[in-house]
């Protein structure tokens, strides 16, 4: 009996020691929480992102305290970006450009995958159109998650001490007026009109910097449908080319980035077409065109690198 008790005691002590050692081993192998920068540095597929962050001087920002959301491009995405923009390597990208491109992947709040909806959000980047207004990002959740019409989210919810990382397959360039028009499915009619074969090269004009910044009042698809009904036309192709050119130019103001805060009651605006329209603010912002028709501004301040977009519910006529 004494031998049995002695054996049990030895086994019990051995098991306690074994558990204690295992617990200590678990404690030592448990991962220490990492910042966004540390996670990028530890991920072999984000080595280009880490190098870009170092070069742009953003390592301290993404290592420090905060609540960031970072859409992190893969190494393949950076290779594609460099090739598309004529850079031999990251070293050839000007630091000022690289910094804004990287900040265009960062939101100032933590947004988990379950919180993502189809909407415009603001990044931490700025473009040449405004020194004070941050660039807008369009997130579309209609089929997966697509950003600015170019980048797909491939992995989500990589948690960090200062926010969260979602991986993307394309470097998200600074969005122009054209970028945001093409990205939003509510503007397909507008894009079709702008790119019609008999029109000026509006893609080059509104995607560039000559005559910029632009303020664009962008009609929705429904606005174009209602215009065709109003004019008793079967489709967009039935609008004469010269007429369409004048109409499209009438929605653009050149040389000004006019945010909603800069709109005043009875403000008269001279358009890229040469004509004018009047803005009123009573009961919401409205536009009275040269045909005395009224359009409502239904969304504002989509900030682009070369201008700003406001959304309207009726096509304006000069």
Automatic annotation (TrEMBL):
One Pfam family it belongs to: Fasciclin
Listed InterPro entries: Adhesion/Biosynth-related, FAS1_dom_sf, FAS1_domain
GO cellular component terms listed in the entry, alphabetical order: extracellular space
Every FAS1 domain range: 33-172, 174-316
Organism the protein comes from: Kaistella chaponensis
Protein keywords: Signal
Domain of life: Bacteria
Family annotation (Gene3D superfamilies): FAS1 domain
PANTHER family: FI19380P1, PERIOSTIN-RELATED
Signal peptide: 1-22
The protein, known as: Uncaracterized surface protein containing fasciclin (FAS1) repeats
């Amino acid at each position: 009996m004494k031998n049995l008790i002695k054996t049990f005691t030895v086994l019990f002590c051995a098991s306690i020691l074994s558990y204690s050692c295992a617990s200590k081993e678990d404690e030592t192998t448990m991962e220490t929480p990492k910042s966004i920068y540390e996670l990028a540095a530890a991920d072999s597929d984000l080595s280009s992102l880490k190098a870009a962050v170092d070069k742009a001087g953003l390592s301290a920002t993404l290592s420090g305290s905060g609540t960031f959301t970072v859409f992190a491009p893969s190494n393949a995405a950076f290779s594609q970006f460099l090739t598309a923009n004529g850079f031999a390597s990251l070293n050839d990208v000007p630091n000022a450009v690289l910094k804004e491109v990287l900040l265009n992947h960062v939101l100032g709040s933590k947004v988990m995958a379950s919180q993502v909806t189809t909407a415009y959000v603001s990044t931490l980047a700025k473009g040449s159109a405004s020194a004070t207004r941050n660039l807008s990002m369009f997130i579309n959740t209609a089929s997966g998650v697509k950003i600015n019409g170019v980048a797909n989210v491939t992995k989500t919810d990589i948690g960090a001490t200062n926010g969260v990382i979602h991986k993307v397959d394309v470097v998200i360039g600074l969005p122009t007026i054209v970028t945001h028009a093409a990205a939003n499915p509510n503007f397909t009619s507008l894009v079709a009109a702008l790119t019609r074969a008999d029109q000026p090269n509006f893609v080059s004009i509104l995607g560039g910097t000559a005559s910029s910044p632009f303020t664009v009042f962008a009609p929705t698809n429904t606005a174009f449908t209602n215009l065709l009904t109003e004019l008793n036309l079967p489709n967009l192709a039935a609008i004469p080319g010269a007429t369409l050119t004048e109409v499209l130019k009438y929605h653009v103001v050149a040389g000004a980035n006019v945010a909603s805060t800069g709109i005043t009651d009875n403000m008269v605006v001279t358009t890229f077409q040469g004509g004018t329209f009047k803005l009123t603010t009573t009961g919401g912002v409205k536009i009275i065109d040269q045909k005395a028709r009224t359009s409502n501004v239904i969304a504002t301040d989509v900030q682009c690198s070369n201008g700003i977009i406001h959304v309207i519910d009726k096509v304006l006529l000069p």
